[in-house]
Write a structure and sequence with these properties.
Elements: H1 6-11, H2 16-47
């Protein structure tokens, strides 16, 4: 597709809310998963004497 402006690009032909909302939700979920992995890793290391 060709877009004539940045506004047309972000509107995505009328599907912008769905497209950008999907990207946003994915970023939030992946960020949450990484935070939980770090938390579990730290908790596991505390149990066996590692820093």
């Amino acid at each position: 597709m060709n877009w004539g402006s940045a506004g047309e690009f972000f509107a995505m032909g009328g599907y912008g809310l769905y497209v950008w909302g999907s990207y946003g939700a994915t970023v939030i979920v992946i960020g949450w998963e990484i935070a939980m992995l770090v938390s579990r890793h730290r908790a596991a290391n505390r149990g066996n004497g590692n820093p």
